[in-house]
Write a structure and sequence with these properties.
Blueprint (H helix, E strand, L loop, with lengths): L13 E5 L3 H12 L3 E6 L3 H4 L5 E5 H9 L4 H9 L1 E2 L3 E5 L4 E5 L10 E5 H10 L6 E3 L3 E6 L4 E5 L4 E4 L1 E4 L6 H6 L9 E13 L11 E5 L3 E9 L2 E9 L12 H9 L6 H7 L6 E7 L12 E3 L14 H16 L8 H30 L4 H13 L2 H12 L8
Parallel strand pairs: 1-2, 1-12, 2-8, 5-14, 12-18
Antiparallel strand pairs: 3-7, 4-7, 5-6, 9-10, 10-11, 13-16, 13-17, 14-15, 15-16
The structure holds flavin-adenine dinucleotide.
Flavin-adenine dinucleotide (FAD) binds next to helix 1, strand 2, strand 3, strand 13 and helix 9.
Length: about 400
């Protein structure tokens, strides 16, 4: 149920958000639901903001947030357009099942929705009235007083709000400004690169039992998932030097074929269904968790700006969604306006344990999935095969136990 206007006592009247990714757009919608004025500034032009490589898992924990927002309208569009997350898991590169889960382990019919990033951004953007999102606006710095924050943009313009939220991703300039740095230090390279893209489900014979699957090889992995309406997204990781590219092998499709052609079906068939031009490659990074305190005064951070993680759990964006909700929820608490700064710090420390656990678990799953040695892979596959499903489920169950609700 959406929060009723009567029940809300917002502590702030205007929030300035930097960044129009999943975190910033969700935060803006949550502010409006809580009767808080919001302005969102995004450095990219609208077309670019509404794009993105491959698909994304919006898992049950984040889906529960969307059930609370905007009379479930975002939630309903997700389910109308996306692919439900049903049974899926990990197999060895030869096709042996290592760990297969199904939504029952979290007590649900499905574990959420997968969408193309483009569709996700479009749906979130369309959930906001015109004028809230201002594109082509690059945040530069802020200055704060006891009562407000003044924000400066690269084009010389400024705006003022009660609080400033940096939702500006891995290279967050808001986070850099918090420590008076001109630019944030480099993030930590994971040791692997990632290719992403799409294929049409009708061109590949897929096992209908599974809506997603990930195959684990030696120093590389290949996964696919249903993003709805007959489309599938794939991703592939490979241990490699930072800053590499596929020019020397004649493009990304050739690179994928060289690494993954000897994987079990349907991987070779998926490779055949891909087009070189639509494959996107990038390097994977994270940053050490910030601990209990992410911001300063009236400035805070959410999502990748605060806690970028490796994408091995498909939870980085989901954590941004949880942050967005929890931040606005804390601002609707019945308290006096001079407690705003305290509430921001409480918000950060309340999120710290969970996002740190996602960071650590993501790294652990990445280490297992990207194991390089033959013996290591044998051992890994053997342990996974022998582990009872209920025990393996416990590794992930805490993620799905998140139950957001508006505070009265
Ligand atoms: C390969 C891969 C797969 C992934 N899969 C999943 C998945 O399945 N599920 C999941 O939940 N997560 C996944 N993630 C993680 C997820 O993509 C991120 O955690 C999520 O996008 C973070 O959202 P955000 O809003 O915090 O930041 P971002 O999405 O990075 O958005 C930041 C925005 O801020 C803007 N910006 C930056 N600087 C400025 C500035 N100075 N001024 C104004 N605007 C600025 C940017 O242009 C951008 O639009 C994956 C990540 C990768 C790399």
């Amino acid at each position: 149920m959406q929060i009723s206007a009567k029940a809300i006592k917002p502590l702030v009247s205007k929030v300035i958000v930097i960044g129009g990714g999943i975190g910033g757009l969700t935060l803006a919608r949550a502010c409006l639901d809580a009767n808080i004025e919001v302005e969102l500034y995004e450095k990219r032009q609208l077309d670019a903001m509404l794009s993105g490589a491959g698909g994304i898992f919006i898992q049950r924990n984040a889906i529960r947030v969307y059930k609370l927002l905007w009379l479930e309208k975002i939630y309903q569009r997700f389910y109308a357009q996306g692919g439900k997350i049903f049974k899926g898991g990990f197999k060895s590169k030869s096709g042996t099942e290592l760990y297969i889960n199904s939504p029952e382990f979290a007590g649900e019919e499905d574990l959420g929705i997968c969408l193309s990033r483009r569709e996700l951004q479009q749906i979130l953007y369309e959930a906001l009235p015109p004028g809230i999102v201002r594109t082509g606006m690059t945040f530069e710095k802020f200055e704060q007083t006891q009562d407000s924050v003044q924000v400066y943009f690269q084009d010389g313009s400024t705006t003022t709000g009660d609080i400033l939220v940096g939702a500006d991703g891995l290279y967050s300039q808001v986070r850099a400004s918090l420590s008076s740095k001109e630019r944030l230090e480099e993030p930590l390279y994971s040791g692997m690169c990632c290719w992403r893209g799409f294929f049409n489900g009708s061109s590949v014979s897929l096992d209908k039992k599974y809506s997603w699957m990930e195959f684990w090889g030696r120093g590389n992995r290949f996964g696919y998932f249903d993003v709805g309406r007959g489309q599938f997204s794939f991703y592939a990781f490979n241990n490699s030097e930072q800053g590499g590219n596929d020019d020397c092998v004649g493009g990304s499709l050739n690179a994928l074929k060289l690494i993954f052609s000897d994987y079990a079906e349907p991987v070779p068939s998926i490779l055949k269904a891909l087009e070189n031009e639509s494959i996107y490659r990038d390097d994977i990074f994270d940053r050490q968790p910030l601990g209990n305190c992410w911001g300063k005064g009236r400035v805070t951070l959410i999502g990748d700006a605060a806690h970028p993680v490796q994408p091995n759990l498909g939870q980085g964006g989901c954590m941004a969604v949880e942050d967005a909700f929890e931040l606005v929820n804390s601002l609707t608490k019945a308290a006096s306006r001079d407690q705003v700064v305290l509430l921001l710090r409480q918000f950060e420390s309340s999120r710290s344990k969970r996002v740190t656990r996602v960071f650590t678990t993501s790294r652990q799953v990445g280490q297992l999935g990207q194991t390089n040695s033959a013996i290591g892979c044998l051992l890994r596959d053997w342990i996974y095969r022998l582990t009872p499903t209920w025990l393996a489920d416990l590794q992930f169950k805490w993620l799905f136990d998140y139950q957001p609700s508006w505070k009265e």
